[in-house]
Amino acid sequence: MMSSSSNHNQKQPEAQAALYGPAGRADYRPGDQIRFRSVATSGQILTGTVLYVRAPGPAIQGGKNHPTVLVMDAGDGFPHMVYPGDVIQE
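The chain above was modelled as a monomer; its predicted structure follows.
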């Protein structure tokens, strides 16, 4: 069952693009549940739901280019930005 916040986010692609950057493609789609190693928690392995896939590019205007990023909801109150290389394949 998907949480109401996930449903809310999936209904607003323009708002997500404004918040996270342009939409991109990855092996995972919004709604997929995956395990990942979180840089924000010193490498702890978490499970979460993909909220959004951000295309490669700078995180801030004029900033360093980043690869594709998965915006994840791990149920801890804030989004995790996860590179595809941090996903744990099962």
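The helical segments are 4-10, 13-20.
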